[in-house]
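Support reply, case 0932

Customer input (verbatim):
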Amino acid sequence: MLALTYHDSHDVRVDNVPDPVLQDPDDIILKITATAICGSDLHLYRGKIPEVKEGDIFGHEFMGTVVDAGSGVSVLKKGDRVAVPFVIACGDCFFCDKKMFAACETTNPDRGAILNKKKIRPGAAIFGYSHLYGGISGGQAEYARVPKANIGPIKIPDGLADEQVLFLSDILPTDYQAVLNAEVDAGSSLAIFGAGPVGLMSAACARMLGVEKIFMIDHHPYRLEFARMTYDVIPLNFDEVDVAEVIIEDTAFRGVDAVIDAVGFEAKGSVLETVLTNMKLEGSSGKALRQCIAAVRRGGVVSVPGIYAGFIHGFMFGDAFEKGLVFKMGQTHVQRFLPELLGAIQAGKLHPNEIISHRLPLAQAA
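Our regenerated output:
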């Protein structure tokens, strides 16, 4: 089959590789009908994530049709069309019992990404995301093996196009969790840092939940204009204004009720941060987080769906303490939200496909 494989940083290729086969009784084999390039795939491509090996197949945001199923698969059959969560969960462990599927203790045989690990077990395995997270082949391919198929893949009803439901696999539940973590509702104010797909879907989810005032921060005019036209946000270009200052002045000099950091660890920081990151002395820039801390009101929430890794310079923990802030973050417990979000799509409350900008066949993906 064809698959997008890693060879080195900035070097991915579409190669012919062996077809996947069933390995465990609760596996399925999926014929991929749609997949996406997630922003976090860029971290792999740029060499920012350790333990990515030559030949690894990328892709953790995919869907398709079941073409084979193990003897232990009880909820799906050949011919079913499913969207697949990017986290692989067993459904039976301590954390799965708490619906914290991204913290599943049993599916990842590798160490995970925690630096100060001690003896803590790693979180869930992730499709196509390095050998820190299980080394499971991803879905930017013609076929994929999906472990733990009784816990995760959601059957898609007839009448919904792939593009309407593809993002159930990652970005939509990720942003829904981010908005829920922000603890906002009708009448709340919210600032979203980053107008890429994560920021845009966060705005869509916030609007669905009735958030009244949404600021969207970026420096690409076309992104900000799309967000304004589509989600009725207040666009702010950080190249032109002091974003936190504008937000504070527009919220009775308090700040917004919550902020969402939809940027993560590749935010462009100071010269010092760039040097430290290039020297591997820290994991990433803290610029987006500093802006979030500055823009949120006392007692507010900082919700972080953007990926972070390693040490962060200039975190401004003292400001966070003085303002009494709450931080909520982490990988997404995708399986928890799928039925609700599929229902919202069917009801016309969410239109994830509106953010799609490019389409291409797998053979042209490299």
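We compared this against your earlier run and they match. Two observations from our side: The radius of gyration is 20 Å. The first strand starts at residue 2 and ends at 8. Please reopen the case if you see a mismatch on your end.
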